[in-house]
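Known limitations

Structure tokens in this collection are predictions and should be treated as such. Users comparing against experimental data should check residue numbering before alignment. To illustrate the layout, the record for DNA polymerase is reproduced below. The input appears on top and the generated tokens appear beneath it.
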Amino acid sequence: MKFQILNADYTYSDDLPVIRLYGRDESGNSICCHVPGFEPYFYAKAKPELSTILLEKFKEHIKRIEQVKRFEPVGYFKNKTSMLKIILYDPKSVPIIRDDIRKMVDEIYETDILFRNRYMVDKGLGGMGWAKAEPEKDTISNEVISDLKITSGNVEPVEILKNAPLRHLAFDIECLPLNGAMPVPETSPIVLISLAFAPDFEGKKTLVLVGKDAKADDETESCGSEEAMLKRFFEIIKKYDPDILVGYNSNSFDIPYIVDRMRTLNRKGARIEPIAGRDGRDLYYKKIGNVTRISVMGRIAVDVLPLLRREFSLKQYTLRNTAKELLGSEKLEIPFLEMEDYWKDNGEKLSKFIEYSRRDSELALLFLLKLQLIDKYIALARVSGTLLQDILDGGQTQMVESLMLREYMKNDRVLPARPTGEMSDERYDEGEELAGAEVLPPKKGLLENIVILDYKSLYPTIMMAHNLCYTTEVVGERPADVIVAPTGGVFVSSKVVKGIVPSILEDLLNRRQETRAKMKTANEEEKRVLDATQLALKILLNSFYGYSGYTRARLYSLTLASAVTSFGRENILRTKDLIEKDIREIILKDGKAFKKDENISGKRIGLSVVYGDTDSVFVHLADKEINFDEAQLVGNTIANTVTDSLVKPMELVFDSFARRAIFLAKKRYALLIQEKTAKGLKEKIKVKGMETVRRDWCELTTKTIEKVLELVLKEGKVDDAVLLVKNTINSIKTIDSTSPLFDDLILTRQYTKKIESYRNRQPHITVIEKLQKRGIISHVGDRIPFVIVAGNAIFVDRAEDPEYAQKKNLPIDVDYYINKQILPPVERILSDFGVTREMLRGMGERKVQTETKQKQLFEF
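Generated tokens:
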């Protein structure tokens, strides 16, 4: 029997721990597989004779102790160290005895690895990976919700590319604001629950449950009461048996509200059993700071809102705005303060309320499926072996540690426990010494003909090239063949021993290349899985450097992290010297490129590095008439020459050609990129660090900057750009709440912590407080929209909710938008062309360029 692993936990049978694997098979059956016989264990660095003492002292917990040889976690060692493998009866015994044992031994290892994870690592299984099980007997208790229930002592990984036919259930709740107050589960009922299914449920794509007697149809179900509606909701979950539970802000709002509301109703005599997990347990949540974790074992709880925040940069993440921007769909709107009236009505208003609710769950499902939001996370689970729910909950560290634990085990190394809070703080203070990447100062102003060269996977290839790893760091005896980093860190070369991290990175890199090659001949379904896989491999490749300097990582090495960045800094400076001092110029002749020492006559292209940033080098080509093909030829020649001087697998490649570029400062520039397509050359503007890509500016700023860059970069028309800004300023002066330009003045800020945690007053917090008084609540994590209105109050007090400002026809603070939003970014771009703020405001004149002057512009 083969099935894809969705989740895992453990239970007990005859007082012994039993692993449970939840999944779905190729035919669409949900499966729960019990695996008895796996034993919990951890390691202790201690002398063998201590075994007898430990067995006697902890005989209730320790089943047996094996004497083993293992390498310690960090450092190069010729010989393994004597350790004790302490095997227990019960996983719950580990936290009970580990602190006492720590006092009796030199060190303990792997004491905080979850039992289910320990099993999957040891058996080569992983989240969303496929497993093959030989069923032995069916002794699984009835509380497990699954089509097939098996017990097997022999579960093995199996390679299957496609995903199982997963079942998706999206849901959304509507709570009643009583007397205009914000709903709270203690007093405000849940009145509607909308559901959307993929695949269909009993022939239905959607279903709205109504918490009172109401007119019903095929896709609306009248439940008579709130209690009956909630019972029906959990009945449908059990009957439909979804793998993925989907919502929009569901983990932070809908699920906690449902759980808390049921507790309130049950205290008043209701009998609602919120069984949602395949383990037969209740729906459950817990808050850790501002983060809410959902427990629905055997299924995956997917809140699409945080996923959308990770994937898409939007100025507002309201369901209405997100649906419009990403799906081109409209969300039905019902005024918050009128919802009570809509609910009390049994006619047209109630019907509209029901459709409003239905649309919310439909959109949540559309986001997940149409935008393929979890494809990448499924691939990350399969590649790293981490459970999908852990990754969705932000488990990048867990992914790296899952790979490390698997490879450490193969190489007879042990992994340390996670650091304590005190240890993390010490590391944080120490880590402030870690120098970052090298950024070469840019040549400011407007430049023509820039070739951009990129280092492919710079930090991973540095770690591979120089054998940089926790396992190669010299901490004791120093062998003869070592690599010394520019920061002084010493590592043994691959001739002595190949590091575990470089080996993992090499495997990930090779698998990514193989995966991309397979995509060329794959069908659509396979291509989708393969594309997600190659992206997952890329993400993991780039995770290991950051992990090495992460203060809460099990494996932390400032020596390693510093060595990687120091090689990176040395590399970019060396590349600059190689281009400017050794190569210096490229000669083009008959469609070929030659270096200056080849004594070829032809078109000579002088080279100078005008900017460098971590893994990118920007090279100016000193020839006005160069075309794209010639620029690419020059770029490839430079890249190949530099690559030849590097330790493999490091590689510099031609990335793109910018016909024009504006550099304002480090990490702040705009490029007019040329791309070759089947229809010929295509141009696009690429911006980094400027106001078009930063969300703390209003949309009018973004649009104005985009148009200014278009005029300057594409057409070289500085005077037209000045005129555009003047016209924009004039349009602001005449704006009112009915103007179509009003929406472009909306700003947004993220609400990142509770109001009382903000030390200084900020405009978006003012708006949150105003909205609360009007019965509208905002959640931590939301982006709060606001406009600045005119008045005598201080700036932060004049921030207002856009809808309220429009409704009340409040005048806009014209001076703020002109002087703080439009002029500063425009001035930064145009000042190098002699344009002043006074000119932009219409207080000064700039003469129109003559033909000669216009040509000189691009020599600036």
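For this record: The radius of gyration is 31 Å. DSSP finds 26 helices and 32 strands in the chain. Please report discrepancies through the issue tracker.
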